[in-house]
Design a protein that fits this description.
Length: about 160
C-alpha cells in the first residue's frame, strides 16, 4: 500500500492571489505628494479621482500586515509543494501572472486614490497603460490554465475492489 499525498489545496493559491493586491496596496502606501499634503494641512480641499477608503491608521496596518503574511505563507507553501512534486510546476504559469495582476491592481488603487490639486494625470496614465497590461496578464493566466487542462494525462478508470 502506497502512501497517498494530499494534493495542495487550491485555497492556498486563492490566498496568494487575493492577498497580493492588498499587500501591494499597503506596501506602496499613500501616493499623495508632499505639496498636496502641505496644502491639505492648511485647509485646502484635495481632488481625488477616487476617494480613498480607510479603516484608520491601525486598521489599515492590520489589514496590510495580514495580507503580507498571507502572501508569504502561501508562497512558502506553494514553493514547498512544488519542490515535493505535490504541485505541478505548470501552475506557476497561471499563478505568476495572477499575482502580477494583483500587484498592478494594488498600485492602480494607490495611484487612483492619491490626493492632489487639480487633475490626477497619473490616474489617466494608469488607466491607459494599466488596463491593457492587466488584460494581458489575465489572458496569459487563462491561456496557461486552458493549456494545462487540455494537456493533462487521462484519468485512470476507477476500479471497484
Amino acid at each position: 500500500m502506497t502512501k497517498q499525498h494530499r494534493p495542495t489545496s487550491p485555497i492556498t493559491a486563492l490566498v496568494l492571489v487575493l492577498c497580493s493586491p492588498v499587500a501591494a496596496w499597503w506596501l506602496i502606501g499613500d501616493l499623495t505628494g508632499d505639496e498636496a499634503r502641505r496644502l491639505a494641512a492648511e485647509g485646502v480641499e484635495l481632488d481625488y479621482a477616487i476617494r480613498p477608503v480607510s479603516l484608520g491608521t491601525a486598521g489599515d496596518q492590520i489589514v496590510g500586515v495580514l495580507a503580507c503574511v498571507g502572501v508569504a505563507l502561501a508562497l512558502a507553501w506553494l514553493i514547498r509543494a512544488t519542490a515535493r512534486r505535490r504541485l505541478d510546476r505548470r501552475w506557476w504559469w497561471v499563478l505568476a501572472p495572477l499575482v502580477a495582476a494583483g500587484v498592478l491592481l494594488g498600485l492602480a488603487w494607490r495611484v487612483l486614490t492619491a490626493g492632489g490639486i487639480g487633475a490626477n494625470i497619473g490616474a489617466g496614465l494608469m488607466v491607459i497603460a494599466g488596463g491593457p497590461a492587466l488584460a494581458v496578464l489575465l489572458i496569459v493566466a487563462a491561456v496557461a490554465a486552458l493549456r494545462m487542462r487540455r494537456n493533462r494525462p487521462p484519468r485512470a478508470p476507477h476500479r471497484a475492489e
